[in-house]
Specification:
With 419 residues, the chain is of the alpha/beta class. It has 2 domains: 138 residues, Rossmann fold (3-Layer(aba) Sandwich); 198 residues, Dihydrodipicolinate Reductase, domain 2, CATH 3.30.360. The chain contains 13 helices and 15 strands. The strands form 2 sheets. It has a 9-stranded mixed sheet. A 6-stranded parallel sheet has the order 3-2-1-4-5-6, with helices on both faces. Helix 1 runs parallel beside helix 2, helix 1 packs across helix 11 and helix 10 packs across helix 12. GO terms for molecular function: nucleotide binding. This is Gfo/Idh/MocA family oxidoreductase.
């Protein structure tokens, strides 16, 4: 274990390691990575972490499903060979697996479980003194967001790197576009229109032997208490770009609508399949968000900012990044692998002893999605302060495959209450 991961009772001493040393087995400069959540995104993040530094190994993994863990390790080993150094003693199963990964001697952790668990896992990782890659979204409710903000503050005090999974912030075409916006290329931003209109996502049919709880955990996406709904879990990328265009200013309020038109069967839990949210900012500026997960419909994934001097577009679907108006501009540079860049920059920061802390904006962007969901679910206007101070806590505090899952009712605007 290096000096990079210390107990939470003391501030970690920054150790300058040697990134130029090629991997030659475990040594004093090796950074040990722990993966918490072995699904597709977690496995992808682990693969990128192992490419981000020449002297890094995957040391421990944790999940609640053995098949997910085994598949993840098999796939990672095929690609990264002896950089996967996970022995049987460092394969942890169960709802407390995250604690065991944190106690296993790792220096860096990847948090990629369903979002419901993120605040607790993040706080535990910060308290344990680990550097963190934290997948989006950061929470599913306001109490979770408040815990994330608390953890981010503590991470800053402990000089721990905390990097978010808002991947477009690491995409060079979008970095260039939003930098132009912030430098005044389109003047004062008046309106930001953003979309995430796509098809549906995966669903796992029930298998013999699964309890009700296992079925829910394997299909976590369709339960608001586990995923936050698709506005928070997936379309949050577009909401984050909206916030980026506004310079990460906080809105005054949100109002909107949503519902279930297509995914109405019980297998789809209680989430909506479409949202339309208006965010209101100071001086009358507005952000308009549209998202849906419906098959055979027109797709759109973009962010368009209109200002007093022009228009800026970051269109994911069409790979267009340009500004029109008084100052015309179009991005013609390299389109990098943003997922890899996330980890390249995280590990470079760790090696340099110059921590990155993205905790505040990643929490605020998450709350923007939660706030929009609250507005759609209740049918009322929700202010930023109301959203941040909401007492609504989604889901239980303890978990098992024998538990009775929370009753999931589809929200009804005008009847579902805000708390």
């Amino acid at each position: 274990m290096t000096g990079m991961a210390l107990a939470s009772s003391v501030l970690p001493t920054v150790t300058i390691l040697h990134p130029q040393r090629a991997f030659a087995g475990i040594n004093s400069d090796t950074l040990k990575v722990g993966l918490i959540g072995c699904g597709g995104r977690g496995s992808g993040a682990a693969a990128q972490a192992l490419k981000a530094d020449p002297n890094v190994v995957l040391h421990a993994v944790g999940d609640i499903f053995k098949d997910k863990m085994d598949d993840s390790l098999a796939n990672l080993t095929k690609v990264h060979g002896d950089k996967v150094k996970v022995d049987e003693e460092h394969k942890f199963l169960g709802f407390d697996a995250y604690k065991k990964v944190l106690d296993s001697g790792v220096d860096v952790v990847i948090l990629a479980t369903p979002p419901h668990f993120r605040p607790e896992h993040l706080m535990a990782a910060v308290q344990a003194g680990k550097h963190i890659f934290c997948e989006k979204p950061m929470a599913v409710d306001a109490p979770g967001v408040r815990k994330v903000l608390e953890a981010a503050k503590l991470a800053k005090e402990k000089k721990i790197s905390l990097l978010s999974g808002f991947c477009w912030r690491f995409h060079e075409p979008k970095r260039a576009t939003f930098e132009k916006i912030q430098d005044g290329a389109i003047g004062d931003v008046l309106t930001v229109y953003n979309t995430y209109n796509t098809g549906t996502v995966w669903s796992h049919p029930r298998k013999p032997g699964w309890t009700d709880a296992e079925y829910v955990f394997r299909n976590w996406y369709y339960y608001t208490w586990l995923s936050g709904d698709h506005l928070v879990e997936q379309a949050i990328h577009s909401v984050d770009m909206m916030s980026w265009a506004f310079g990460d200013k906080l809105p005054l309020s949100a109002a909107g609508t949503g519902g279930r038109q297509v995914r109405v069967e019980p297998i789809y839990g209680n989430i909506y399949d479409h949202f339309a949210i208006t965010y209101e900012y100071e001086d009358g500026a507005k952000g308009f968000h549209f998202s849906r997960q419906q098959v055979n419909c027109e797709g759109s994934y973009m962010c368009e900012a209109l200002g007093t001097k022009g228009r800026a577009v970051a269109n994911v679907s069409r790979n267009v990044h340009e500004i029109t108006g008084r100052k015309k501009w179009k991005y013609n540079g390299v389109a990098n692998d943003m997922y890899q860049t996330e980890h390249d920059e995280l590990f470079a920061a760790i090696r340099k002893g110059e921590p990155i802390n993205q905790g505040e904006y990643m929490a605020n962007s998450t709350l923007l999605g939660i706030m929009g969901r609250m507005a759609a679910y209740t049918g009322r206007r929700i202010t930023w302060d109301e959203a941040l101070n909401s007492t609504e806590k989604l889901g239980p505090d303890t978990y098992s495959f024998e538990m009775t899952p929370p009753v999931v009712e589809v929200a009804r605007p005008g009847f579902t209450h805000f708390s």
